[in-house]
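Project channel, design review

CF: Before we commit to the Ancylostoma caninum constructs, I'd like one complete example in the thread so the newer folks can see what an input/output pair looks like. Taking 7TM GPCR serpentine receptor class x (Srx) domain-containing protein.
RD: sounds good, go ahead.
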Amino acid sequence: MNSTTQEISELRLPFFILYIVVGCVFLLLHLRFVMIIQSTRSLVKLPAYRCIQHASIACFINITTQIIVVAFTISQNEMNYTLNTIIGAIFQGSWAAEYPMLLILAGNRLLSVASPVLVNRLCDLKSANAVVALCWSFGLFNAILCLSGQVQTLWIPTAPGFAFTEGTFLASFLFYMDFYFAEFVVVSSLICYISILIIFLLKVYTE
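CF: and here is what came back for 7TM GPCR serpentine receptor class x (Srx) domain-containing protein:
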């Protein structure tokens, strides 16, 4: 590792250490949350909690990959390219599986507030399992693309962060697909939660 990288690592060392500590705390919280849902029969049977459970699992995997690469950066050891590629694929796959679930949960919450009767008809456990399976399939699709050799998601210590490799059509396709889909998820989820707030305010002021 060259002197520039060492200097950057030293300057960011407190941040990296804090990142790992906070990451470990969130790992424990997600693990505990998943265990609580799994051990509580009344929660396991609820469609929304099924989505929340799998979103937590995806987030757990995602945070784990970040802790691993940050630990490599702190130790100033050169990460093997193959290992970097595999970890990057897992990172991308778990992230791609997680963020659609966030939109589904936002839509579920909006429907629960706006029409409780309708949500009971549309959002059953079978449909929740199907949606979760689709989200994991999308994540797996992303991970496979990152292992195809045409595009990789690699940890860049000097950035620091994960970044797509460039130069191929598949790399551009994956980048723009995830970028615009993520933007759509963020905007749509925000609209759902703002709508929920408006509905609550209208109920408060009209009663």
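RD: helpful, thanks. The first strand starts at residue 153 and ends at 156.
CF: The chain is about 80% helix and 5% strand.
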